[in-house]
Amino acid sequence: HLRLENDSEIELQVCRATVFEGGRLDLHEQRDKKERDDRELSFSPFLFGIPPSDDTPKRQQALGSGVIVRKDGLVVTNNHVISTADEIKVVLVDGRTFDAKVVLQDADADLAALRFVKTSKNSQNFGGSFPFIPLGCGETLEVGDVVLAIGNNLGLQGTVTQGIISAVGRVLANNRMSSKITVPLVQTSASINPGSSGGALVDMQGHLVGINTAILTPSRGNVGLAFAVPANYIIPLLRAVDAKLRRVQRPYIGCTLGKIEYPAKGVLIHDVVPEGPAAKGGIKAKDIILELNDQPVTDTDRLLMMIATQNIQSEISLKIQRGNNFFTRRVVIGIWKPREQKILVVKDEGNPFYGTTLSEMNPQLNSQLGIEASKRGVVVKEIAPRTSASGLFRRGDRVLQIDENKIANLTSLKLCIDDALKKKKRSIISIRVARGAIVIEFRLSIGGTRSKL
After folding, report:
1. Which of these, 88, 143, 298, 390, could form a disulfide with 100 (CB 3.0-4.6 Å)?
2. What confidence score (pLDDT) does residue 138 get?
């Protein structure tokens, strides 16, 4: 139990439930992480030692952080902290040391669950229960709330820093990220550095409200722009651990969400997935969600966090506004099933799409890009900076037509571009894309040399 009269006592109690992980990595993996550190968005454990000049594989130690979330010692950390480790050792603030094994990974939320391995040498360390941090709710966070970040900052064990919540529901462009993370993040001004990944972000009541994940920086050091995975996304991970599942089952209602103009309140249903949970519950496009289980819904990111805590196959109550009418609909929570995406990464500099990652559309991808769930075809998923495509296309552009040929999938797009590139003389091709409600036509000169997509 935490007494709030003294901030230092909060820090002490929370630190006891914070763990520090050491993973042994192959040197080649370590170099990959160093390259990622040089990007604007840093996801990395803290690495000891100086890389040798040759390419001989050697062992290297890296440090990250983690949080005990249950009295049996279950640890939650970032997936990127342990995903390439061959061995994991966990050290508690009180000095106890354990080997640990990975129980479950959730790359989409950049989370992982670990358990201590009991051996004859460390069995005395398992006496009684472990200190743990109770879970809080990310959707209750407000900008300006005071929080503490705890972690292994640059290898300094048990470092506690203070800051505020700077933003809730921060979605970062994927081309600026080296992690696969897809959930909205909490932004904080608390100082977080390499080695803090997987550590606790706690409120002033001592509740775990996030897992520290990344910093946005031009210098590899903290500049007050840090990000954490909201604690809500830990709940599906823990449920999957309890059920001994091989993968996390993420709650899903089957609709794409949009913002509504001030001063209206709620969240707009942009589109509904056919035969999805929302459609079966009578939800329609252009409906506005005002409440979930009698709790006000203020924005899309908080709604997603609220849904993340729901049980699969449980029934939720949604208060809906449709025009001037208000009513309640019951929706049964389904399971989000990621679809295998068909993508094409264009690396040929002679190709007009050079620098893009193109994908065939599906409801999940469309939701991420703000496109109607029913739309199909080819969409620009990512654009590499400083390439020819970065001056033409934008993320979310739908490729409609090349010359007179309608583009239905990646195969038809590839055939059209390959034909143009094989011509001995340069020619002009027309590429039509939809950007929101606007259709844009590009007329580009290509070909003249033999090149392949």
Report:
1. 88
2. 85
